[in-house]
Amino acid sequence: MKVEGTLELQVPHFGSLAHSSDMTHRHGFTPLSFGFFIPEHPYCKAQPWHTHARFRATGFALDDKPMTSLSIPDDWRDAMLRHKVVGNMQFKLTKCENHEDALHTDPVSIF
Q1: How far apart are CA 61 and CA 65, in angstroms?
Q2: 37-76 exposure pattern, b = at least 16 Cβ within 10 A, e = fewer
Q3: In the structure, how many helices (H) and strands (E) does the chain have?
Q4: In whole angstroms, what is the distance from residue 91 CA to residue 98 CA?
Q5: Rounded distance, CA 48 to CA 28, Å?
Q6: Residue 44 has what pLDDT?
Q7: Do residues 51 and 36 make contact, with C-beta atoms less than 8 angstroms apart?
Q8: What does the pLDDT read at residue 32?
């Protein structure tokens, strides 16, 4: 992927029926799953050797509803605790040239 290229993806939340009932879904995701790619995120800071790829979080949505942070809202937490349907997450990530380019520029809060 070229620098400043955009990766847009939709993945099932690990607590959703879409994840657990579709046998083609090998992994479930959380908003934290992509923390290893975002330099400001605690996961990337703690284990930077996982990958050299760095991105800025430029968009995040839950079931197509735009969110301002990578945190799961209370209604989704409640649904997960009651084993109710929780849906899909949409991410938009922009590739950075290096670690420094990704710092302090995320329009989506990582917390």
Answers
A1: 5
A2: bbbbbebbeeeeeeeeebbbbbbbebeeeebeebebeeeb
A3: 4, 4
A4: 20
A5: 22
A6: 86
A7: yes
A8: 80
Residue 28 is which amino acid?
A: G
Question: And the tokens for 78?
Answer: 């409640």
What's this model's pTM, rounded to 2 decimal places? Answer: 0.71
Q: Tell me the pLDDT tens digit for each residue of 59-88.
A: 888 888 888 877 777 887 777 777 666 678
Q: Tokens representing 5?
A: 């290229």
- Whether residue 93 contacts residue 57, with contact meaning beta carbons closer than 8 Å, is answered with yes
- Residue 38, pLDDT score: 87
The identity of residue 13, as a single letter, is H
Q: How many residues does the structure list for the chain? A: 111
